[in-house]
Each structure stands twice: as C-alpha cells, then as structure tokens.
Recover the amino acids of this structure.
C-alpha cells in the first residue's frame, strides 16, 4: 500500500500540534510535503515533544514491571544488569536525581549488589513499590548499567534504569502500593483455595462465567485428604469488604487468567472489594481472586516466652490437658482436679533438693519424674506436674564450636518441638515449633522426600520478608498445581529447608511440616528480627556473606 508523503507529514504535524503549544493548523502547514528539509527536521523535534506530552496526558509509559494486575505485567522477572541497559523511562528523573533522596523499585526484584559491577555479590533485593535511601548523588556508570549504579543505605549498589524511579509520585508505583504488606507479624490476610482462577484484572460476569466453567460451583468447599493439616485454621465464612476497587484492575491487558490456584493452594491478600455483586480479593502478587472460591484463615496468637538469661530449665508447655499433682506426707503424689490447658506455659522450680524426684514415680520406681511448679493449691501447697506431659525447654549448656561468646545462635529440638534462641551462653527466648512430619531423619533417606528436618549445624543463608514455597519449583509458575504463597519471615539454612512462619495451622510442638521449621506468626517475626544478617530498611530480601556478614548459626538436634 502506497502512503502519500505529504499526507503522512500532515498527520505528524497534527500530532505535533496536539502535544505542543504550536497550533495544530500551523504545525500541519509547516510539516507538509512541500516544506524544506530544514523545516522538516524542525518538525521532527516538535513531533518528539508532542509524543512525550501525549504520553504524559494519556497515562504513564508501560515500560517496567508491575504487579500482575497492573499495566505491563512482568511479575516474575528478575531485574539484573542485563535488564538495565536502557535509558531511564523518565528524562526528568535522570536529570534531577541528584536532588532525590530515595530510589523506588518498579519490578518484582531489583537487586542490591555488593559493588557497582555485574560480577559483584548479590546482597539482597527490593520488591516492587519499596524504596531505599540513597547514600549520595553519585552516579557510577558501567557497561552493564548505562544509567549508572547508585549507592544505597546501609550498603550496596542498585542499577538505576527502567525498573527503578526516583519519583515517589510516579504513576507506575500506584499498582505496587496497593499490594504492599503491612508491618508486623501479619503482613497479609490469608486464604486457602477451593480451586479458583487468579485473574489479571476483574472480569465482567460473562467473562468469569466462561473462565470458571470447569472449576465447579462457587461457595462449596470440598476437603482434600492428602494434607488436611493445611485446613486447621481455615474457616467457612464470608469475607467482608474492607476496601475500594482499585481502578487499575478494571482495565483489560493480555490474557484474563494469570494462573490457577488448585485445591489446597494458599496465598495472601491485601484487601477485599465489591464488584458486580461479588466480593473479590486482591492477592499479594496483584491478581484478583473471587472470595467465594476460597476460605480465609483465622490468625494464630500463640507465642513463646522470654527466658531472661536463665541457664536452668525454666519450664515447659503442656502437651495436652495436663493434670496437677499434690505431694502427700509419705513422699507420694495424688492427683487433683486442677489442670493446665494444652500449650499452657508451666514454669517450675529447679531446686537441687528435688532432684531425687526426677526419674522416679510415687513408689520410688523408674517413672516420668515430677516438677515442682510455681503454681499453688488452694491450701497453699505447691502443685506438681509430670515431666513427660511437658514439652520442656532445655537450655544448651555450651555454645557450638566456632560460635563467639556473645554471638547469637538458635537450637531446635525435633523430638521436643522446641526452639531456644541464644546469645552466647545466655538464653533469650524459647518457643514451640513444628518440624518435619517425617520425624527424625534416617540414614540414606532423602530428607526432602521423607519430610524430615535435617540434623546438624548450619548457618542462615537467605532471609525473605515473605516468599512463595512449592515442591514444584522447577515448573513454570502457571503450571504448578500446588503452592503456598507469601510465607512470611522465611530464613533458609540448608537447601530448601527454612525457619518460617506457618499461617495455616496452630499445632506448634507437633510434627507438621514438609521438613522446614514452622513457627507461629508472632514468633516468626520475632526470630527474624533476632537473627543475622538483619534485613535493612526498604529491602525485601537479604543474603549472608560479603559486607552483610555471616548468617546466624542454626543447630538442629534430636
């Protein structure tokens, strides 16, 4: 097809006039096919200004990654040096960045490097929407980062490019801000899927009817038997609307369904909103999920205890409803109606005078032994508890080899289901944990396949504010049939094994996990703040090594 050059120039002249103060009619005449070459070159300059103005009038550029529901979605792409070889999307930002104090991430991962080079160690990364303070206005140019590396607090360098911005009012931050986690132990609300699509935008009733035809009826919650432990905190209740519909999630872009959350998969969400007489959830990764196809979780409020530096056994948690005993005149024990509920903290004395009662029953024969508690009977007599009915805290007497006198470390007992956080030889706090459901590891048996927690001495390697976990990590995200998304306070110490929060159960002290060490939300956050390396302000992940220093030692015993 032949395009008349004069008509083409007239069209471009009109566009130029639209975006530039020069009136459209004048620009059209100047840029006509009869214009000289010099005039046409001037028109091209005008045209470029017009295009820029056109973009600013009709919305921000779609360059860069955003949450799944936002424009130009690239939710799983990592931002490395190879991704930053283009100019900044904002010329103004590139010209005025010396006056800016913060750098913002526009991608799912914006790496922090140990040095301004692509060969440096990765110290951690920022998640989209997060900001990090700049050390200064210096720009270090590199072949791998045309727009220059910027030093950030408290250490490291970020390659500034199309996946970052210095403008806190950048429209591309809008979508990311709607999926930011809350501060504290509960960064999101959580739900378990009854088999649902996760949409890239909120569809019309006609579109979702077609998309959900193969998913079964909404509002029904069939149980799945292969891992009922994941349903312990799930509730069949209506999720109330608590926020407005983000306008950006009404715009169609690309395919409608991002992926499928199969029966039993879990995820976090930041808000719930109403649309077309249906309640929707905005997931942590920016997809829209129908609320009538999930069950929300209630929150576990269990937490451990401060040990205040005691070096002796301070107590333990009742394994189940635990009876209190009284010591009678002849040295025996009799049962009382008093009891402690399951997981109640039972403090007791550790007096040398009662050591002869350890390991003996009321007749002096081998038995479970008794502990004199701090609780008293109505007549003032001390109440006792059987040791085998407690998950006792046994404080380690020596620090591991290679651990400094005040260095922080953690001991996990698989058999007792107890974690003790230490500072040298001083106990700081203790709590119940849930190790691998396979129990103690066995020789020549893969701990991953056997769902056992490995024994040994390790160091924390990576820490994440939250992370998706799945046994199908090698598969593309869209092909996974099971995942646990947005697991808070994950601290990996050996391969796929980590200390992390479990938001799906409340049975701490029992064998529950696939091999990781499960903690309650309150304890998970507490331990995350206790261990090294610390997560710097504004970062989503931090890795041990280099300028971050060593990770905290984790000792796992029987």
């Amino acid at each position: 097809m032949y395009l008349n050059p004069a008509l083409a120039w007239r069209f471009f002249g009109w566009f130029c006039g639209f975006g530039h103060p020069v009136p459209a009619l004048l620009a059209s005449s100047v840029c006509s096919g009869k214009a000289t070459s010099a005039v046409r070159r001037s028109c091209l300059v005008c045209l470029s200004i017009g295009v820029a103005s056109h973009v600013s009038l009709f919305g921000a550029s779609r360059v860069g990654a955003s949450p799944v529901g936002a424009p130009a979605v690239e939710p799983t792409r990592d931002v490395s040096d190879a991704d930053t070889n283009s100019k900044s999307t904002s010329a103004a930002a590139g010209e005025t960045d010396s006056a800016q104090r913060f750098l913002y991430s526009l991608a799912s991962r914006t790496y922090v490097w140990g040095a301004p080079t692509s060969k440096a160690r990765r110290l951690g990364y920022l998640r989209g929407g997060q900001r990090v303070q700049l050390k200064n206005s210096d720009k270090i140019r590199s072949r791998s980062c045309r727009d220059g590396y910027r030093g950030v607090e408290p250490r490291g360098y970020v390659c500034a490019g199309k996946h970052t911005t210095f403008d806190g009012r950048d429209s591309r931050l809008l979508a990311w801000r709607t999926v930011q986690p809350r501060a504290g132990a509960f960064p999101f609300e959580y739900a378990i899927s009854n088999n649902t699509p996760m949409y890239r935008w909120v569809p019309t009733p006609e579109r979702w009817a077609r998309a959900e035809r193969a998913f079964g009826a909404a509002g029904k919650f069939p149980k799945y038997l292969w891992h009922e432990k994941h349903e312990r905190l799930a509730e069949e209740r209506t999720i109330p609307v608590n926020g407005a519909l983000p306008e950006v999630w009404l715009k169609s872009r690309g395919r409608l369904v991002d992926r499928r959350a199969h029966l039993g998969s879990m995820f976090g969400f930041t808000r719930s909103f109403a649309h077309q007489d249906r309640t929707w959830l905005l997931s942590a990764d920016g997809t829209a999920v129908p609320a009538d196809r999930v069950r929300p979780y209630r929150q576990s409020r269990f937490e451990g205890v401060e040990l205040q530096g005691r070096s002796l056994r301070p107590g333990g948690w009742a394994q189940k409803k635990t009876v209190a005993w009284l010591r009678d005149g002849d040295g025996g024990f009799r049962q009382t109606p008093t009891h402690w509920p399951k997981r109640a903290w039972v403090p007791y004395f550790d007096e040398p005078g009662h050591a002869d009662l350890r390991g003996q029953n009321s007749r002096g024969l081998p038995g479970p032994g008794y502990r004199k508690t701090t609780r008293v009977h109505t007549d003032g007599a001390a109440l006792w508890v059987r040791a085998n009915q407690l998950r006792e805290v046994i404080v380690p007497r020596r620090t591991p080899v290679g651990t400094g006198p005040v260095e922080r470390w953690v001991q996990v007992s698989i058999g007792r289901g107890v974690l003790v956080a230490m500072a040298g030889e001083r106990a700081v706090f203790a709590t119940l944990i849930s190790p691998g459901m396979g129990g103690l590891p066995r020789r020549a048996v893969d701990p991953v396949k056997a769902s056992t927690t490995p024994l040994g001495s390790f160091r924390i390697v990576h820490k994440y504010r939250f992370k998706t976990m799945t046994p199908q990590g090698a598969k593309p995200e869209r092909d996974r049939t099971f995942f646990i998304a947005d697991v808070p306070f994950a601290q990996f110490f050996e391969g796929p094994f980590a200390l992390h929060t479990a938001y799906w159960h409340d049975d701490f002290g029992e064998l529950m996990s696939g091999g990781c060490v499960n903690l309650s939300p309150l304890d998970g956050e507490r331990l995350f703040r206790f261990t090294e390396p610390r997560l710097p302000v504004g970062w989503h992940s931090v890795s041990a090594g280099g300028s971050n220093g060593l990770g905290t030692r984790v000792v796992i015993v029987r």
Q: What stands out?
A: Confidence is low (pLDDT under 50) at residues 1-64, 69-98, 351-367. The first helix runs from residue 5 to 19. The radius of gyration is 30 Å.
